Amino acid sequence: MVPCKCDYILSSKRGRPGRRVSTSKSVPKSVGYLVPYVLISTFQYEVAQDGLKYSSPFVLMGLRYLIASLILFGIARSFRPIVNKDTVLLAMLTWSSAFFWILGLEYVSPSESAVLTYTMPLISIPMSSLILSEKASPREWAGAAIGFVGVLVYSLVILENQTLSALGAALTLLNAFFWAMYTIYYRKLKNQDATTTVATQLLFGAVLFLLIIPLDYRIDITPHFWFDLAYLSILAAATSFLLWNALARLHRVGKTTTLIYSTPVAVTLVQYVETSSLPPPISLMGISLMIFGICVSRWSKL
Predict the structure, then answer these.
(1) What is the 3-state secondary structure (H, E, C) of 120-165?
(2) What pTM, to 2 d.p., does this model score?
(3) Domain boundaries, the chain
(4) pLDDT tops 70 at residue 120
(5) What is the per-residue burial (b if ≥16 Cβ within 10 Å, else e) of 40-52?
């Protein structure tokens, strides 16, 4: 195919072809995947903690993953799980992340859980170097660090009157570690069919959760429970995992994971729409740092 003239920058003096300009649509794709992912994540922590009022963690997560996997296999029009070493390991990492996340929510608030979970970019960057040999650029390290400082500053007002549970913090940090790890494996498995990969990942996770249900079985079926389960299954699992998989395929891990700092920004915007009141100046400073961190990680000329 003959390249379009707009694919090149021509030298104004010599009329020679200059640097090729990519016509890739990866930037708008990133935005298209990121916006719904962030909106779903904005409410995920509160919905999950509300769901724990009506069922045990293992019941809630087992049903969530099972429903989500069946939805994705239906979209793929084939119930044929991918069984290979890396996909099984992906499923184990995902199950471990969800296991520690949902248990942590029994000891920490949604805001505390979110803050601790956002250590994930700082974990994923060195681990992607070890597993994928992806060398993060200085700007990606800087963006991740600046963004996390922004999360800490943003959270000072939220956390100043709360006592953080050591056990809850440890469980949530383990969730962050395993989230980083399965994000890396998304990148490693980028040549597999995305829908079937995520469906298999969630199916194996569902089986593991259902196997341990006898350790803690509790369920109170109410309309609130059905709403929480529907949100967590359809949006926060089937849709959210597929979107995160798509983001991980587009760019290096260091560039992708820094995007999660968009979530606190979205939370603040939602709160402003609901209450018409701005957060304290220190929270706005934290938001500014998070946005700056995202920009730094994606600024190719730094």
Answers:
(1) HHHHHHHHHHHHHCCCCCHHHHHHHHHHHHHHHHHHHHHHCCCCCC
(2) 0.79
(3) 28-134+163-253
(4) yes
(5) bbbbbbbbbbbbb
